[in-house]
Amino acid sequence: MVQLGVKNYIKIPSDEYARLKKLAQFFDSFWGYIQHLRDIQEAREEVRGGKTIKQEELFRKFGA
Q1: What pTM was computed for the model?
Q2: For the chain, N or C: smaller number of CB within 10 Å?
Q3: pLDDT band for position 31 (50/70/90)?
């Protein structure tokens, strides 16, 4: 294998790094929000499909 004189890193100015870091945090929170919406949608589909039971029925099953 031929080794080239290439560096394993690049230099980024600190202001650009800060901007990219802020952008990454924004997208992390955005994807978290999208996942939250998907969880709500799945829960609503389970309720519509009858896959859930009421809390009172559950307590009666456990004898509480």
Answers
A1: 0.57
A2: N
A3: very high
The set of residues, in sequence order, having a beta carbon less than 8 Å from that of 20 and lying 6+ positions away, is 12
What string of H, E and C letters represents the secondary structure of the chain? CCCCCCCCCCCCCHHHHHHHHHHHHHHHHHHHHHHHHHHHHHHHHHHHCCCCCCHHHHHHHHCC
CB–CB of 46/52 below 8 Å? yes
- For residue 64, the model assigns a pLDDT of 66
Place of tokens 């009172």: 56
Distances (CA, A) of 41 to 5, 14, 52, 59: 52, 41, 14, 26
